[in-house]
Amino acid sequence: MLCAGAGLQASGFESRYYWPQVSVQKELDPLMVNLSAAEIPLALLRQYLPQQYEAVRECDLPKPSPKPG
Fold it and tell me: Is the pTM of this model over 0.70?
């Protein structure tokens, strides 16, 4: 995901300027609710975030759990 905006950044696109906008926050809030309601499979965590996976396995980082709702 770090490379997703690489081409856009070269054209002057800076996403950090858009985060505070009300329209972005309006869309971001439901996205975060939906993402927090989903359990991340450990295999996916291991593949894309290996350090966090190891921390979860060693109980140094709690495994994200779905929020009731």
Answer: no
